[in-house]
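agent: user wants the full assembly modeled, not chains individually. Plan: 1) parse entity lines 2) check alphabet per entity 3) run joint structure prediction 4) return tokens. Steps 1-2 passed, two entities, 425 residues total. Proceeding.
--- entities ---
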Amino acid sequence: MLSLHYLREHKDEALKGLAKRCNDALPKLVEEALELDRQKRQIMAEAEGQQAEINRMSKEVGEHMRAGNKDKAEQVKALVGVHKESVHELKAKLLQLDTDLNNVLYQIPNVPHDKVAKGKSADENEEVERWGDIPALGDFAEAHWDLASRYSLMDFELGVKISGAGFPVYTGKGARLQRAMIAFFLDEAQKAGYEEVMPPLLVNEDSGFGTGQLPDKEGQMYYVSEDDLYLIPTAEVPITNMFRDIIVDGHDFPIKRCGYTPCFRREAGSYGKDVRGLNRLHQFDKVELVEIAHPDHSYEVLDRMVAHVASLLQKLELPYRILRLCGGDMGFTAAMTYDFEVYSTAQKRWLEVSSVSNFENFQSNRLHCRFRREGEKKTELVHTLNGSALALPRVLAALLENHQDENGISIPEALRPYTGFDRID
RNA sequence: GGAGAGGUGGCCGAGCGGUUUAAGGCGCACGCCUGGAAAGCGUGUUUCCCCGAGAGGGGAUCAAGGGUUCGAAUCCCUUCCUCUCCGCCA
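--- prediction returned ---
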């Protein structure tokens, strides 16, 4: 969530930025939050004054008792009651205000960065880079789901039988290819300085809250009510939460983590031709990058992450474009997001394979992840970033479709050491 | 799942109703000492919030929440977590 400090001191800047999200409700919410904050601080000051009085008097009682002055002690005791009552009342009010304030704050998304364009929907995203030639395939070109069954790489029906739609079974070279990509992505991340971690796949409520999936988007996550745990929708949740309630040492920057995990998404109600095959699944594999950054350098970090993801797609020889999302298309917690899309030749459409975002201090405010500037006494919120590098299913889809020829599918050079084969046929 | 033990500051560890504004130690920072260092000595060292230009002042914080009391780390209730043993188990 946004920090109240920031809202208080940079209200105009916040409103101007938020306007880019094209959501008319936001200015009112900001005003509401500031008003509740004002009331809260006023009442807080009152309650603390009363409490100070009680503390002072209690100390006095102690002194009288020690001096053996019982009457004096009783006299003071009798006077405390009034203050106690008013503290009680003020505290109740405070609790209510706090709840109201949080409810409002939870509805205010992150303020988009200066560079982010105003816009309502995906149509207004800006293309910032394009790489690679879209291969001209002949009439033989097939979509990945057809290729998958022709070469026995996946079995969607089998997945339906075991679990349901959206849970494919990878078989033979399909399974091997999957494993190869995971290893390849992890190795590349490691070369780029990211430390590998293997986090839990189920997380508690605090963690879901820390990265912003809760309280609003619990419908997206599978929930195990028996144990009050959520299946992770992305490794971002457990990995970023490793830094919850922590004051990091400023010398530790840059803090770079990567991890492979399966991801689980309910994706309720989304069925149709656009979600055929590997395009949208309930369970999929992903290698994720997470970085905890110094606020002064987080946009350099973002650029480096983008460059890293680009290098992966280049090594896989997949044509891609990079979009800087407009205000309206950006996620709730992000200040700037770059989406990577690869062109799927057989489906004749762009598929999103990565999303790289700077959350600035929106997540760290909830996570309470802070650091101290050299020589400063006060702590300051860190910036958090993450990016997929990469999400496997759509990369696999594009790989199969773009690298096919009449007789099979060729594996990109970079992956061959991992697959152990250079063609599927 | 059953039984027991326990959660105190960056860490270890005392405290079990009012000189605790949390002892003592370790660590860390700064200073003195030194040719330089170690040792020694001295000072400082939880975090969050509020008021204040600042100096400073105030509040909260001994797992969390509630209660008793003039006053709670300390007593009572509830919840959570950790550890040990047993059972089950890849």
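agent: reporting back. Chain A has two domains: 24-105, 122-424. Residues 41, 44-45, 47-49, 51-52, 54-55, 57-63, 65-66, 73-74, 76-81, 84, 247, 368, 379 of chain A lie near RNA strand B (CB under 10 Å from a C1').
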